[in-house]
Every structure is written in structure tokens, then in C-alpha cells.
Amino acid sequence: MNRINHHHMTKTGTVARWSGPIGVLSILVVILTALPRSGHAHGLAPALLDIAEGTDGRFEVSFTAPAASASQLELQWPQTCTAGTSGRRSHNDGTVIARHDLDCGSAGLLGKRIAIAGLAVTRTEVLVRITWHDGHAVTAVLHSTNPTYMVPERTTAGALVLSYLFLGIEHILLGIDHLLFVLGLLMLIDWRKQLLLTITAFTVGHSVTLSIAILGTVAVPTAPVEAIIALSIVFLAVEIVRADPASPVRRAPWSVAAGFGLLHGFGFAGALTGIGLPDGEVAEALFLFNLGVEIGQLLFVGVVAIIVMSAGKVVRTTRGMMLASAYAIGSLAAFWALDRILEIG
Predict the structure, then answer these.
(1) Which CATH number is 118's domain given?
(2) pTM
(3) Are residues 180 and 301 located together in one domain of the fold?
(4) What is the pLDDT of residues 148-186, one digit of tens each?
């Protein structure tokens, strides 16, 4: 091992030993991410199908979807229902709202099947909310593997839990910028001494801002937050390149994780604030969504740990590998940041 590598291994110990395999993984993630998409790192852009029952088997339908996927999503109603003419309206927040009346006659919607075509192509999750005439509501989340919904009279507790848990897990696992940030943290920390504290700090940070954003305590524009999230990844990449064991970031990575976690929380909140939450279910939905985010994050860290333990036996850590990883992560994040800043303007 050359002098630089020996110095790096001596000063940072476990960090260098784990960074090689993680570096290989990070480069692969960057390549796969950069191929199909531009500056948009979030895979999950949820939509809301809001159905309100009126009288005589009539319903008012409002479908809010991301502008990029709205034209590819098609609502499919039971044969006993007739949809009126749809009126579409674009909003500055990047969504399109389509409204129309639905006449299901005496058959109604109870026990009927609703489907949404195009979910697999657009990778869109749709929160379905049906409010009955007496005021109570049923809720479900449709996605590419479950694009249909058999309308029940009431939502079971188990169905509600699975719906919001799945939405949270999907959001973190498809939010590649959040995952790259976590990867950057893993390349900086000593897994034996700092992993639990750092991941916990990141969790606490984004849980706080996710909660206050959803509850409406603080309203933060999404576009600037997304740009700063990309810059947070650039910041980590710079720290990896510096490889300074005396850096405050390496000595106390939990402080950085908590600070940037606050920003990432506002990013997570975008998945729910854009579509709203059912009245009477805000606390439950917020808790379950956040729990889903944590489950997804732990799954990701677990997969990385397995790869690290397996690849660490055959992949030799070198300074060049770490630099390549840092530049790959930083370059993609810088591109995201620039793209998002231009979108703001």
C-alpha cells in the first residue's frame, strides 16, 4: 500500500476500510441515476384522487397529479358509472387538477372497482380518498403493482397503516438524492462508533421538519429546499475529497446529519403537502409515513452493509477509488443543484 493510502488508513481507520466498497456502490448508483433522468432526483411524485359523494348516486371528482405525468394517467370507472366532461387547470406548483362529475346512479360506488392506468409508466403513487355523504371517508394508496381499488364502506386500520407505510418507504427508496446523502455520510463515519448516532441524528432532524411542514406550522417553498438538498450532497463530497481526520464533519458527523436532516425533512414533506391529508387522519398518516421513511432508510443502510461486508473482502480500498466516488457523487449533485436553481428562476 502506498504512503498516501497508508496515511489515510491510519488516520481514519474504519472509514477508509468501508469507503472502498461503498465507493464502488456509489459510482454505480450515480451512473444508473444519471442515465434516465436529468435534475429530478425524486422518483415519487404522488397524486390525489378525491371523490366526494353527493346525492342520487352522483359524485364530485378532483384528480391532482404532477404535470409531468398527468396526461399519462387515466381514471377507469365501473361500467355503471358515467363521467362528465373534465376541466383541467395547471398550477404554479407543478400540478394539474382535473375536475368532473361522476354519475353512478342507484348502483353507487360501494363495492365497485376503480382503476388508474399508467402508474407503472409514470412511477406515480395515487392517494385515493372517498368521502361519503354522511361525512366518513375511506382511504387507500394505489401504485404500479396495485392499480385497482375495490371501494369498501370503511377503511380498515390495517389498510390505512399499509397505505401510508408503503408511501413512506417508496418515497425514501425512490428519492435518489436522499440516498446519495446517506451514502456520503456512510463514507465519512466510523461504522463501529458513529453509525447509530449519525443515522439517529439524521432521523430526528428530518422528522422534526417533516412534522411541522405537514402540520402547517412552517411553510417552505419546495424548489429552494430541493436545491439546497442537492448542495448538501456536494458538501459531503467535498469532505470526502479533503479526507481531513481533524475536520469537524468527521469528528462530529451527527451534527451535520442533524442539520441537513432538517432540510431533507422539508423535502420528504413535499410528498404529502402537495396532495394534502384526510381530515381526522393527519396525525396517523404523518406518523405512518415517517415510519415508512425510516424503514426504507434502514433497509437501504442494511443493503449497503451487506454489500460492504461482502465486497470488502475482494475490493481493495485506494485513494483513487475514494476520489472517483466523491467526484461522481459531487458532480451529479452539482448538476441537480444547478438544474433546480435554474427552475427557481
Answers:
(1) 2.60.40
(2) 0.72
(3) yes
(4) 999 987 766 677 777 788 888 888 887 888 888 988 888
